[in-house]
Amino acid sequence: EEEEQLVVEVNRILQRLCNDPASIQMMKSSGLVEGLLSTLEAFPSNELIEKTVGKTLAKIMSDSIDDLITTLKSPDASESEKQNAMRLLAALALDSSTGGDMIAKRGGVGAIIGAFKNAQNAAAIEQTARAIANLAATRTNIEELVKEG
Fold it and tell me: What is the pTM of this model?
């Protein structure tokens, strides 16, 4: 419980820092995004941490969603690149009010469904299933998921 509170407080500070573009760039270049993804893996069924870290990731990565979607759609992207993009999109979708909506508005639902249909290994299937489940937390995203197949 103490660890949970610490993670939440650190993420709230990070979210405040996201008001500064230079801070966001520093967070991206320092490996913080990978650290946040590892935090999600360390607390796999903790809704508070999922929401808090998802919100932080959405603030940090909001300008990268189009690139992540492009990577999923690209026939030239490696399986590893697609898996990493899906991992980030799944985490961004945890914050349905920001990340999930941005993914849906930018055509990411179709890309995620396509990636699920073309997944070639268990890890890729797991990441796409996680993204779909996270997106399904919002009614408008459910409609988009149904529409995309």
Answer: 0.76
